[in-house]
Amino acid sequence: MNMSFADMMMRLFNDHLAVLPVLLPGLTAVLMLLIGDRPAEQCLPRLRRIALISVGLGLLFALKLAMEADDGVLRVYRVGDWPAPFGIVLVVDRLSALMLLLTQAVALPVLVYASGGWDSHGRHFHALFQFQLMGLNGAFVTGDLFNLFVFFEVLLIASYVLLLHGQGKERFRVGLQYVAINLAASALFLIGVALIYATVGTLNMADLAQRVPQVQGDEALLLKAAALILLVVFGVKAALLPLYLWLPATYAAASAPVAALFAVMTKVGVYSILRVHGVIFGHDAGAAALTVQPWLLPLALGTSALAVLGALAAHTLPRLVAYLTVASVGTILAALGLFTAPAWSAALYYMAHSTLVIAALFLLVELVAAQRGDAGERLEPGAPVAQPALLGLLMLLAAASAAGLPPLPGFIGKLMVLQASSGHEAQAWVWTVVLAVGFLTLIGLARAGSVLFWSVRPELAGSGTSAGASPRLLLATVSLIVAGVFMSAMAGPLKRYTDAAAEQLGDRRAYVEAVLGSEGVQTTRPYVFPRTPATEGAHP
Amino acid sequence: MSILSSISVEFLVATGIGWVTACGVFLMLRGRSFPVVLGLTLLGYAVNIFIFVMGRLWSGAQPILGQGEVQADPLPQALVLTAIVIGFATTGFVIELALRSRAESGTDHVDGKEPDA
Question: Could you say which residues of chain B have pLDDT below 50?
Fold first, then answer.
């Protein structure tokens, strides 16, 4: 009896594992809102514990999903058991599982860091944090384009408020701009999605993968327009060349843990570009195949180049890191823009690594800034930090990793990108930009490091706010950096995983069969042949 | 009269959506937060009708199931409902944010400071 109950729970867990990364943070957030956060001194410790348990569980679920995906299982979850493509489906393949794992791996240390004090600077931080995770996880597992929009909105609405966390004039200024830009992008997203629906008659990704290649003639032109509109939308999220201008000011104004979590948010844009433009509008998409190829690579290389110049010109630490975020996104998108499986594998590896390092850098610069007295986060000589050896070493590790020095994983990621581009017609451009950006990143970070740790004004010693960073904050930062460095030691298995993930993305047939069944489902479109929407005659 | 009767409903609706979108974009590019919010709202309206129209325009069709020969596509209606709800919530938020930003910076300019005269 006891045994069978345990079996039943295990089966229940196993059946619903795919939806848990979305449900768990959602329910946790609701629970937190019910608990409330007043009075803070009573509620905050409780909220912190709940948040920690929830994110830890989420990490375990993501690990389980990733291990399962590693065996080549395509996990399809039909919400309410409605058959695809009519109901909502969640699909966890290798790429989705990797993104889930990355999200949770960043979220856990960031949560520990935020629990060190930042979460008391405003209300409902933990609930919003969970909603943000729900939106991120949902965007990564959904198998439906409209659902992708809905989860985008969930994560954006949470991010609007998280960005304002801690308040202050500057945060409200960039907050309004950030919200306006993202609302405009959401409107464009809907236009793109509606255009796709109008031409193809479905929004289920598996069904789209089947139908898009069949579209021809004038409808294919509309479909291409939709693909390009969606590139603009995802470009805003991912910070692609003309659309990244909002990012540095926004991320620099956000509080450190929020900015570190936002490092994952740009990757939602990258993920969506890969899913939509890499797979649905990929190689064998008929008339609309590779619609964005002429645009993506040049824009991505331009993003990287301009962003690293921005990093060189940055006058505050968070701004420097924010520009490095944009530069790394440029490198990832350049690899995506090559449209080959090895390049995608390189992009995934580099993305996982750069997200961890960028998140670590956002936390680290705040630790450093807190010990520099009045100079704070400005890049000018200030009081010597209280823990120069420790923070200096962490800074060195993170900087070398971000710039791509061997043997750190940033080097391996960039090497994979360079290798994947060899033989491509744009090889010279990719090599030049990636190597130059790495070099300039190194210069920018070396300059920042020497100002922070060497070019100090000893007469100001002791004016810093704290003798040393608290162990909790240090632990969170160190664990992110260690996770980044660990990727170097695990490079072999990880590369096998990302290789397989990239291969899996190219296999349309397996994806369609997993979601729609091997015989396929015939969906109806009321307005195509033999009936046409002839309005003349139909008018009263 | 003959000109009017030769204009299709599709043309009228498309022109209307285009006009509202143009107004929305124009307002969104203004420097004050109130026109920006109005512009976002107008853009939202235009997009909602656009989604709705993507199910094609029908007259005399059955809404979902029925006896008639022709059935309208119910999916865009479901999609537009979701979009309306989300748009409504975000509009509420952005209005509150604009008011708060006005209170914090003392100006309703989107840059947080008055442009130099």
Answer: none
